[in-house]
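FW: tagging you since you asked about this chain on Friday. Here's the raw sequence from the shared folder, copied in full. Didn't touch anything.
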Amino acid sequence: MIEVANPILPGCHPDPSICRVGEWYYLVTSTFEYLPGLPVLRSRDLARWETIGHVIDRPGMLDFEGIGSSGGLYAPTIRHGLGLYWVVCTLVDREDPSRGGNFLVTASDPAGPWSDPVLLDVAGIDPSIAFDDGGRVWLHGTRLAADPEWHDQTEVWVREYAPDRSALVGEEHVIWRGAVHGAVWAEGPHLYRIDGSWFLLAAEGGTEFHHAVSVARADAVTGPYVGNRANPVFTHRHLGRTSTVIGAGHADLVQAADGSWFAVMLAMRADDGHHYPLGRETFLCPVVWEDGWPVFAPGEGRLPATVRIPWALEEPTPGEWQPDDRIAGVVVPSDPRWTALRALPSQVAVAEGDAWRLPVRAATLHEPSSPAFLGVRQQHADVDVRCVLEVRGLAEGESAGLVLRQSELDHVALAVTRTAEGLRLSSEECRAGDRQQRGLGALSAADEVELALSGRGYAYSLRHGETELAVADGRELDASATGGFLGLWVGIHATSAGAEPRGEVRITRFEYAPALVDHGDR
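HL: got it, structure written out here
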């Protein structure tokens, strides 16, 4: 037996969905405007996770151009049935709801390649998929209620899907509007066929502090569903703001080979009970069945710090790819953590051994386009990031630097700009779209420039060498302060600020190092 530390996927890994096929568990999470989209992770023991591919990993699979921050890929579901792996998801444009929509992809191997998306003729978000004992396929999801009793009331629908026609068929059934009268956003539904009954697991309360899990049961997939008298069966909202883990919800169930049950769900680590710069993370929760209903975290009623895995016999080997390995290291181009904005990393940069060559683009970080940006999630509250940039390829007027990014409207950056007089250093702080730029002086002539970022809880420091040049407060950059759904990213950006781009920057070194800091009783 081993114990797995929560969260099992730290940093911005929200809306987790999981399934088991044989000895392997497969898990996907939301990625919003970052590409490649929807990482597929696998594990044999729920402790050691590795990224084996991404669902959206080819140019042209979906159109992300112009989709603003916290739009994009929402709440995927992964399942296995009829000899295939299935992922259903939603592409969301928050400014133009007519764009995007629900889609379905399949693969014979979860590592890919995945099929081109099949668009589903149904409105709403958070689609899921289930298979009945006869091999019929049932799609379900969430949408705003047609005749709502209160603001943000939603409903869960279910309808049969015909794989041979790639279409929804038959009658649609509305099966759920939430367990609590007045609760907003009954969403994230998943249907399961267990011991002859159908179970509906759904979130409600909104994906923030009041998030919760509810469950209902029916004899037929189309209902009627009867809610558990204990609903909501799991939440952290009753713990108040002294809890440092908040917003637990959006759960998905999985049964282990030994018959035991677990759930993955999102939650946020918030030291002050409010702010969570790392975003919504994936947690593991033990589940037992009592009186025909699932009980989450039995005897405890909250997400545990560690979860016992009874069938796993070996501790994870340090150095295996798993996001919470506290090992400093260079993040090379082949590392699956690299992401770009609305484009694949290979579309904006060229891998050259252990370095990236990043051609300058005209786009800046302020508009919802595909700028020259490469970044990774911040996955540890205490972290040191160091990059070495070869800047001799920058043309006059072009800039490159290190960015702590929340969105187009909220980020902090250090930049090196080539001018007629030489290299100059500057900082930019963007809050709610209000930009404050500050010149920091000339740099001595050099081909390479070292920039660094340190995060300690909510305090961020950006440096050139050992000199602190900018600071940021994570309580002003997280989603609870800025809106949206993302954690923070750290990355490199290069721009000609609208002019015709001519140059490039090389990222010769990028180090991400979790910092082991003693916080005492924090």
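FW: The mean pLDDT is 94.
HL: agreed, and The chain has three helices and 39 strands.
FW: great, closing this out.
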